[in-house]
Design a protein that fits this description.
homodimer, 423 residues, Molybdenum Cofactor Biosythetic Enzyme, Chain A, Molybdopterin biosynthesis moea protein, domain 2, Molybdopterin biosynthesis moeA protein, domain 3, 24 strands, 18% helix, elongated
Chain lengths: 423, 423
């Protein structure tokens, strides 16, 4: 204990070994009103043609195009205007030759009409108490008419399972009458923060102690990733109560995250707890910075993530290893963070034995994507976490990276994701 | 009525005229647990030094560096190991020359010690029932010690007002004991959908009618933009009841959105309602597609947004005109959508009299940013809304745009935003 030598595995191999245990979750049917931000459990299908009736895209007059075959500036054609059809109203008349109806945008084309002439090309007038209009041009059959199903036909797949329900998706769901929506059930993530040094957020600082931030951070990351969480509180570094709580939490949740207790030190708990649980350790050292001590184990198909107690390492460990498992449970096959290529706008000169995931802020300019160290004061870990919307991925084995270098970046706030980890 | 000629104004001028009425909102104090996704009402300040005590970043031994002045591989120096200091524990002894304490990552450096040697460079042994360690190298004062305030000093600003409370920000808030957080109060957006053609989401389709999707879509957009909404339902195109509801909604909300009823047609309500309210119309035609009939008015400092009944136009109108007002109310000076430059991956060949905002999907590849028409079937409006994470901004006056053209894009899901509209 304490001096164990661990073999680091490559990040991509670590992710792969975790994802072997990731699986689609369950689905539930919820009210349309509650669906924002959830993900579809099945493809979204058009339940009717769009439009569902022959529709006018403009305000104007509907009539038979045949009546205008000989129309021209010197030979205007006149129509008697029979009625007015507003959007949502039904035409009451079948039009005959020489008859037109005033029609509004979105209204149903009357029987006997096959085109719509916009107001701007017609001249209205009254005569003997009747309404007329005249037109000086020929019209084609179908002109300014949106036929049934011209935009969409019943049965068309409009979005795949795993898609995020964003405002546009809400419009689609409403259009097709999905007042109940089948969505992926949010997986429940258990969270336990370990460390004798941890104070609660509302406690005053004490010498030698720090406030627990990892537990709350991971909870917020789980929420952002689409999960629910159950926070089991913080624990001192004591084996017996920790073991019991981990065991209980593992039974009550879909996956479990602990923070702290994974380093190779005197009081490091998690390896011992994993052993007592009979959990299979997938890896306990990853060739990355920060977070090299990240440990992941499996017990009866459930994943246990032993994240580092260091805030940066904890943050990175969650995004690399936990988030794709959650996204997969939400039926999203694009479960990995979207990857981009960006130009560095800050130096990062620390030598890199392992691949480094640096908290960064991605920005956009005329040259494309640029990436900056994040935070108002870039030198400190805490504020850089708050400002991060991405990780720079800096491969190991170099002396450092400089302004102008092109690097890969993982986008933490992109909603769709991609199907492969670090292409 | 019906044939009124409207003068279009430029999009940028329209946005500017709306933003003259945008203002910072109010603030409220909420529990830390509820703060995810909210925006800070004031800058976030460090309430203590980080670290707040001299701290060990590693597991190892703490002692006085002076004792190692002559240490070398042929002259190892030995220390008696006095106690073990775990993270969160306090050292009980002041170390003297020749004494060391075993110390864990995150623990407080004992008095009398000024450096930490990692386990890997020390050799532990027992002799006569006492614990010893020896080291074969010199150590410097301060080596492997994180002094008080070395990362952050009390009073440092860590994030500005208007910043989004993301997972990293939660970690910062927790670190500094913000169990209560001052956040921007969510502005309340009133929503009224007008149109005799509108059915409720749970009604079967009827000839000539469509289901109301705009009201729900705008509600989801308001939510995404950080607002609360109050949905007043849908109304037939009838002046008296519509006027009354608009008047009531305007009194009960911070800003009001109506959808539909703004075109130049027989049954178009909003211009008449604005007149009766005595609201000042800022503009009623914008040189853009879709959404040229977007109308914005002001009544006693409150903005009324008359968005088009066309779903695409409604969506675009919200994002261009309403969202920045909401973001400003949330203290975010970067209230406009982040702008990027991207390469087109699809043709868009429609001639463009006005600037066109095309629903698009932004993606990333080795060449940088690319932009695609959105939706599984790119030709239909409804599914393209669901897949959109951006607008292509296609300036007017051209014959169309082709694959490979570099165009400006507004990013709808980027969290930070920018301080100017369309640079």
């Amino acid at each position: 204990m304490g001096m164990e030598i661990r073999k680091p595995i490559l990040v991509a191999d670590a992710v792969k070994s975790v994802m072997e245990y990731a699986k689609y979750g369950t689905q539930e049917t919820i009210d349309f009103a509650e669906a924002d931000g959830r993900r579809l459990a099945e493809p979204l299908i058009a339940t009717n043609d769009v439009p569902s009736f022959d529709k006018s895209p403009y305000d104007g007059f509907a009539f038979s195009s045949k009546d205008t075959v000989n129309a021209s500036t010197i030979n205007p054609v006149q129509f008697e205007v029979m009625e007015r059809v507003g959007a949502g109203e039904l035409p009451t008349l079948k039009l005959k030759s020489g008859q037109a109806s005033r029609i509004m945008t979105g209204a149903k084309i009357p029987e006997g009409a096959d085109c719509v002439a916009m107001f701007e090309v017609c001249k209205s007038f009254e005569q003997n108490g009747k309404n007329y209009m005249e037109i000086k041009r020929t019209m084609q059959a179908g002109q300014n008419v949106m036929p049934v199903g011209s935009e969409l036909t019943t049965g068309t797949a409009l979005a795949e399972a795993g898609s995020l329900i964003n405002p546009g998706m809400k419009a689609v769901l409403a259009t097709f009458g999905y007042h109940k929506v089948k969505v992926a059930t949010k997986p429940v993530v258990g969270i336990i923060a370990t460390g004798t040094e941890l104070l609660d957020i509302d406690e005053p600082l004490q010498p030698g102690k720090i406030r627990n931030s990892n537990g709350y951070m991971v909870a917020a990351q789980a929420k952002r990733a689409g999960a629910e969480y159950k926070y089991y509180g913080k624990l001192a570094d004591e084996l017996e109560p920790s073991y019991k709580l981990v065991k209980q939490a593992l039974e009550e949740t879909d996956l479990l995250i602990t923070t702290g207790g994974v380093s190779v030190g005197d009081f490091d708990l998690m390896p011992e707890i994993f052993k007592r649980l009979g959990a299979k350790v997938l890896f306990n050292k990853v060739a990355m910075r920060p977070g090299s001590v990240t440990t992941v184990a499996v017990k009866e198909g459930k994943l246990l993530f032993g994240l580092s107690g260091n805030p940066s390492a904890c943050y990175v460990g969650f995004e690399l290893f936990v988030r794709p498992v959650i996204q997969k449970a939400l039926f999203n096959d694009n479960c990995y963070h979207k990857q981009a290529s960006a130009v560095m706008k800050d130096d990062f000169l620390k030598p890199n034995p392992f691949t480094r995931f640096v908290r960064s802020y991605i920005d956009y300019d005329e040259q494309g994507l640029s990436v900056h160290l994040s935070g108002m004061d870039k030198s400190n870990v805490v504020s850089s976490l708050a400002g991060a919307n991405s990780f720079m991925v800096l491969p190991g084995g170099t002396r450092g990276y400089k302004v102008g270098d092109q690097v890969n970046v993982l986008l933490l706030e992109e909603m769709k994701g991609q199907s492969k980890f670090l292409l």
